[in-house]
Amino acid sequence: MAKWSASFRTPTVSRLAKALVAGSLCLAAGVALAGECPADDRVADGQGQKPGATSPVGVSDVVRATTDLSKEPAAIKGRQLRLRQLDIAPGGIVPWHSHDNRPAMIYIVTGEIYEYSSNCKVPILHKAGDVASEKKGTSHWWKNIGSEPVRLISVDLFPGDAKMDSHMM
């Protein structure tokens, strides 16, 4: 896997920081983020999109950094703050998974990708610059139906002591 060039890394980190701040402000203000399930299409968990593939297809998943939160001031035993880069090829699939035990934020760096969520009647289109919030009650899968690769940055509270695969979607 090619490393990020310095010219690519700096703007991406800056865009990620801006997106996380903007996303936090929008959530605090009660404003819907771009790429969210429309209010009239939200349904009870399990009544939305059906489960998809259970294995990744055309996905490169690189863990860029982790922090053991038990050693930080928050002292969250058994959790890691984890940052990953996922590159999804055209036709690629991030398989069906749940966030009941692992909240996350996904920043769409480049491209467009569809999310198929268990609590939304319609697929959700995410575009570059969007932030998707994944929390308890979210089960979903993603697919790149476009002709260009998609790059995502995922930040989650990974249950590091559970001996789970560090590349768990």
Note the gap between the termini. Answer: 19 Å
Main β-sheet, in a few words? 8 strands, antiparallel
CATH class: Mainly Beta
Write the element-wise H/E pattern from the N-terminal end onward.
HEEEEEEEE
Indicate the proportion of strand residues.
35-45%
- State the CATH topology: Jelly Rolls
Oligomer: single chain
Overall form: globular
Helix content: 10-25%
**How many H/I helices?**
1
Model description:
The protein is mostly beta strands. It is globular and about 40 Å long. The longest helix has 24 residues, at 6-29. Strands 1, 2, 3, 4, 5, 6, 7 and 8 form an eight-stranded antiparallel sheet that branches. It has a single domain (6-162), classed as Jelly Rolls. It is built from one helix and eight strands; from the N terminus they run H-E-E-E-E-E-E-E-E. Residues 1-11 and 16-33 have low confidence and may be disordered.
Search tags:
single chain, 169 residues, mainly beta, Jelly Rolls, eight-stranded antiparallel sheet, 1 helix, 39% strand, globular, disordered N terminus
List the helices and strands and how they pair.
Elements: H1 6-29, E1 57-68, E2 80-98, E3 104-110, E4 112-117, E5 124-127, E6 131-134, E7 139-143, E8 150-158
Antiparallel strand pairs: 1-2, 2-7, 2-8, 3-6, 3-8, 4-5, 4-7
Write a brief caption for the model.
The chain is mostly beta strands. It is 14% helix and 39% strand. It is built from 1 helix and 8 strands.
